[in-house]
Amino acid sequence: MDYEELIGLIFKRFPSVQGNGFTPGSYKPGLEHMRAFDRALGCPSQKLRTIHIAGTNGKGSVASMLASALGSCGYKAGLFTSPHLNDFRERIKVGGEMIPKDYVQAFLTEWLPWMQEQDLSFFEITTGLAFKWFLDQKVDVAVMETGLGGRLDSTNILERPELCVVTSIGLDHMALLGDTRAKIAAEKAGIFKADVPALVGEKDPETAPVFAEKAQGLCPLYYASESFPSLWDRHKAILDDMDLPADVQKKNLRTVLVAIDLLKTRFEGLQNADAVTDGIIHAAARTGLRGRWERLSEQPYVVADIGHNAQALEYNFARLKRDVESGQFSSLIIVYGIMADKDLDAILPLMPADATYIFTTPATPRALPAAELLQRFNEYRRARGLPARSYLSGSVREAVQMATQLAQGLSTQLSRSASAPPQEVPPLIYIGGSAFVVAEALPLF
Fold first, then answer.
1. What are phi and psi of 166, to 5 degrees?
2. How many Å apart are CA 364 and CA 437, to the nearest integer?
3. pLDDT (tens digit, 9 = 90+) per residue, 383-393?
4. pLDDT digits over 99-136, tens only?
């Protein structure tokens, strides 16, 4: 079979959580199968230098910034992230380049019988593929992002990474990880390893005792929120220039800068402050990270972000409101879809009151039907006397087209001074709520 046929078979024979949700066929917690696969591959996970990253939000951005900084300092850095948006190979990169199709084809051809016999999950296959390619590429370091949780995640067969990072703790995937932030923190802290520095992004009363208990007698524990990294005097300038411009990146940047300080003794090239700064500023471009407050168009002005839970959307919606209130944009149009397992009750109070909403259903069985989303939105707004300018769309493509048509009629003329001619102030279109919505929107631009 050629590459496309093999990829199609893998997605069908080994259903992914991304496409099918946390069904018994796609989500298989535990490390036994992953360890067996790693042994069959020659134990590549144990022959690599790695950095292990978990967290509810921010782990993809932190992983990408670290990989880009390492690359800027002269290291050959592998990067393993999920989910992918448009191409399966987005998950596995070295130096910003995706794993080649011919390598994937050869790997799957060789190992398909074994994977079928052992009934691996999609994520176990992907993780093994990443480990093997990184080893064959002779990377200096591989930055590995967990898929879900930490303790039972396939990536957690790593025995001695250089650093373990937990970016943030929020209420997401509660049916699998626990219904409190403390329980979720315990799952994320499952990546901590003996004598390996552990870095947690934020310290708070609910989760700090969990991390402290896990680290006690096991490993040194650090909190980025309590640290002042050596490059912190540059953080404002870095934030101004970063190609990852979302508000939440300030917290992520602090975590990255503290991580770099902890890694300097292991990777001396990270002592080059200018190279580190350059790598972080251009992290999205150099790693191919997409969908993080990504500007897709100037006319109309469109941004997209994969933030999908209340913790992430709180930042995004606050920024949208601020950008409109500042006069930078005349109005706000939000194209929005959501997965059925997300806490919509926690998200509804965060949604900007004065926006125009276009609700849509991305093409995945995991999605909450747009009609149900519209109904719950309207019920919430009516009960509180809030405006409910909302539309229903049958697809993401249709929703984006509707948004651009609405935008044409919402631009306003604003005179900057008595002598200056009026200038058009455009509306802002935001596309988000789910990585699936963003993934379907990206090719349209």
1. -120, 115
2. 10
3. 999 988 999 99
4. 999 999 999 999 999 999 999 999 999 999 999 999 99
Question: Closest Cα to residue 52, out of 311, 290, 262, 209?
Answer: 262
Instruction: Choose the weakest-confidence range: 3-17, 339-353, 396-410.
Output: 3-17
Up-side HSE of residue 20: CA atoms within 13 Å toward CB?
16
Q: Which helix (H) or strand (E) holds 358?
A: strand 356-359
Taking the whole predicted model, whether its pTM rises above 0.70 is answered as yes
pLDDT digits (tens, 9 = 90+) for 183-203: 999 999 999 999 999 999 999
CB 17 within 8 A of CB 129: no
Burial (CB < 10 A; 0-12, 13-18, 19+), residue 2, is exposed
Among 307, 251, 28, 64, which residue's Cα sits nearest to residue 149? Answer: 28
Average pLDDT of 366-379? 96
Give the H/E segment covering residue 93. strand 92-94
Q: Tokens at residue 292, please?
A: 């993080």
Domains and CATH numbers, the chain: 3-287 (3.40.1190.10), 294-444 (3.90.190.20)
Contact 97, 285 (CB under 8 A): no
Q: Which two tokens stand for residue 384?
A: 């509180």
- Which sign does the torsion angle of CA 16, 18, 22, 23 carry? negative
CB atoms within 10 A of CB 173: 19
Query: Phi/psi at 137 (nearest 5 deg)?
Result: -80, -5
